[in-house]
Design brief:
Elements lengths: L7 E5 L2 E17 L2 E13 L8 E3 L2 E11 L2 H8 L8 E6 L5 E3 L10 H20 L3 H43 L4
Length: 182
Amino acid sequence: MTDPEYEAVYEFPEGKLYINILPARSGKEHWGDEWQRVTNHRLSVSSSGRDDEPLKIRGRRYQLGIAFARIPAQAEVWLRARSDEPELFQWDNSLRRWSMTNGDGKELGWNTAARERLAEIAAEAALRFENDHPEWRLTSERLEIENELREAEAAISIARESVVKAESRAVRLRVQIAMYPV
């Protein structure tokens, strides 16, 4: 059962984590002797933003909101050659002011048991999602392309407005010029 606002919901003893697919981020990175196009597919993992659904660890309330980037294929090959269980998801950014907060909305300190457990279940939720939805990376890429299309369409709209303004100005200037004797 999933909430329509989310791609998936995973239950843990601490509470529910919600997964959404985010637009990928593409760029170039240097691999070996050449620059290659690299796509970082992204997911958000969060507890409910509502106060009535917090995560609970040892009876204390916590909120979580992290965007993860899946490591690119080139990096995965390299990591798998060096580890049986490579970390496939890396922290990308926080969805809120802080990625992990206590019941008072304050950031969790580093090296705390609660922070480690929240990071652990967030990474596990991302891996579960990837196993359950192997096509998710294509959706992330599509979302990136849709964003680029919206940006291109906005640029076209701005350019058209500029053309209309320039044509209007040109008409006014022609009228002014016509008032002068030749």
